[in-house]
Each structure stands twice: as C-alpha cells, then as structure tokens.
Amino acid sequence: MLEFEIIQNANPMAEADRALAFQNLGFGTLFSDHMAVIHWSADKEWHSAQVTARAPFALDPASSVLHYAQEIFEGMKAYRAADGKVVLFRPDQNAKRFNASARRLAMPELPEEDFLAAIEKLVAVDRKWVPEGNGGSLYLRPFMFANESFLGVRPSKEYIFCVIASPVGPYFKGGAKPVKIWVSEDYTRAAVGGTGAAKCGGNYAASLIAQAEAGKHGCDQVLFLDAAERKWIEELGGMNIFFVFNDGSMVTPPLGTILPGITRNSVLTLAKDNNIAVEERPYAFDELQADAASGRLVEAFACGTAAVIAGIGELKHRNGSLTIGTGETGAVTTLLRNKLVGIQTQALADSHGWLHTIPVS
C-alpha cells in the first residue's frame, strides 16, 4: 500500500468565505482546498502519492489524453451525520468500477486499497468542507488520465490519478419536483462492444448534443434508446432509470451497454428489502407508451450518485409527450429515496454495511 505525503495548502479559503459559499451550494462549481494525486509510469508503476494544495496540472500539448482520450472517472459522496461523523457510501464499489473502466480503456488498474486511501486522506484533510444538513454533501471526483507526451495510437506509458472534492447541494434545482425527460431518437450513447459500461469522459461528451436538444425542449435530462434498433430504453445521459407499475412491481434495463450504477444496485437491494419485485429486462419505448396510456405505468425515476433518486413526471419525444402516472413523484419513488438517503445520512440503520466511516486524523 502506498504512503501518502500530506502537504497542507498554504493559502486555504478563509472560513468566512467558505461559510458564505455554503449558504447557496450549487453543483460542481465550488472546490475544496486540497487534492490527492498519484503518478504511474511503466518503469515505476504507482508512486509519488500526495495530498496537496488543489492546483492546475501542467500538460504538454502532446499529452496523450488530449489526443486519444484515455480518461476515466468516478463520482461518489461523503456525508456528515448528525453525530458529526463523516461517511462514504459504498466506496469499495467505486474502486471496483474504476478498475473495470481502466481495463476497458487499456489503462493501469489502481489497487483498491490505494483508491480508498486517496479518498480517505483527502476527506480527512478537507473534513471542514463536508456540509452539514440541508441535503448537502461533499461530492468526490476520482479520475485518471494519460499523460505521456507522444503522438501515436497506443496506450500511454504515463498516467496521473487524482481526486478533487466539491461541496454540493441538490443536483436538480427543482428539489423534489419531478423532472422532465427528452427521448432522443436521433442520437445514441453506446453499442454492444463499446464503452457504455465504462465511466469514461467520451461517453458523456457524446451525450452532450442530445442533452442540448433536451434543453431546447424544456427537459432536464435525455433518455437514450439502443443503437441497433432504436427501440429499447437504455439509460439517461448521466443516470439509470426505473419504471414502477400499478401492481407494485418495477422494471429497469439490463446491464451490458449501460453503466452499472452503484445507486442502481442499491435500489435493487432496497426494493428486495421492501418486497418490491424488480425485473432487469429490455423495455421498449413503444411498450412504455402503451403502459402509460393504459395506466399500468404509474411511476418512473432516475437514479445516480449526483441526483440520488429523482422522480420523472413527463417524457417528451418528437411526436408528442406523455405523463407518467399523476405527473408527481410517486409513493414507491419516495419510499426508496427516503430509505437510501436515510442510510447515507445514518438516520436509518445500515443493515448492508454500505457506510465507510472516515477516520479522524
């Protein structure tokens, strides 16, 4: 396991300035004082682990990430409980998924214990940046990118792993208000054999034009269909999706070309805990429209680390729109969100051992 050098930021944000910024937290625009950094090279492998002042990287114009997009990342959160403890939610799963993404993009895997240590040590140093209450949390962004200076299509021989932290409020500005979704029938996110199951920047870059289209139609997010038939529902631009029926059961698209969301997996477990039957199976957009028209489909929700669980009230598409159930956040969505948030904030018992307490340094 790597030893981390801790170098304190000589010019941290003033306490008064941070307190003022915490009064109106957005998402991903405010950053803590420090970052964790580890380097990899073909001759030394992982080395030079530090927690140091957050600062820009100096990249050569020929840095391979700028040309061949070898880059992966994760998203996770640290929460402050009522007793003052700071906890992470299932960070071991983020470490595993990070390495799965690394394998897909021909990048070196980071030992899970070093991934977790980087998170722990950064949060311990920047503990005061974890918001208290009001739905706030410290969003953590571990990422890795190729940094060898060369022009040639092959894996890089140098990489940088880094973790930055951002105190955040709710992802969607409307709070608990259900979101509107645009169904993209012109653009796709991933195909069989592609990188859909990897958390790499290129997947998100490819979704931005569809997300912009969604914005033009007054929607908060975009829903992608499969690349082969343009028939099967896959996932949103940055979240997984579930559908709830009038018999209390749920359906969610199967893994393969979609991201194996940690929140998605947690929802599946919580549904089982609450005797909610869930099928992981292909669900066609035509089937969804028929179920919405007949009243069989009563709820839908998006889920992910950033948004947690957000009810979906309306779907818009090129031929019109449809309301999901009453158009409001439903009872099953609310139940699962309350269960999940309750565990994350330690308001409810963590019977699955999902929480990881940050040691006090």
Automatic annotation (TrEMBL):
Pfam families named among the record's database cross-references = Aminotran_4
Q: Which reaction does it catalyse?
A: L-leucine + 2-oxoglutarate = 4-methyl-2-oxopentanoate + L-glutamate; L-isoleucine + 2-oxoglutarate = (S)-3-methyl-2-oxopentanoate + L-glutamate; L-valine + 2-oxoglutarate = 3-methyl-2-oxobutanoate + L-glutamate
Class of enzymatic activity (EC top level): transferase
Q: Which cofactor does it need?
A: pyridoxal 5'-phosphate
Q: In which pathway does it act?
A: Amino-acid biosynthesis; L-valine biosynthesis; L-valine from pyruvate: step 4/4; Amino-acid biosynthesis; L-leucine biosynthesis; L-leucine from 3-methyl-2-oxobutanoate: step 4/4; Amino-acid biosynthesis; L-isoleucine biosynthesis; L-isoleucine from 2-oxobutanoate: step 4/4
Gene Ontology MF terms: branched-chain-amino-acid transaminase activity
- Keywords of the record: Amino-acid biosynthesis, Aminotransferase, Branched-chain amino acid biosynthesis, Pyridoxal phosphate, Transferase
GO BP terms: namely:
isoleucine biosynthetic process; L-leucine biosynthetic process; L-valine biosynthetic process
PROSITE patterns reported for this sequence? AA_TRANSFER_CLASS_4 (PS00770)
Q: Which residues carry this modification: N6-(pyridoxal phosphate)lysine?
A: K199
Q: Which family does it belong to?
A: Belongs to the class-IV pyridoxal-phosphate-dependent aminotransferase family.
- What's this chain's function? Acts on leucine, isoleucine and valine.
Q: What is this protein called?
A: Branched-chain-amino-acid aminotransferase
Question: What is the originating organism of this protein?
Answer: Aliirhizobium cellulosilyticum
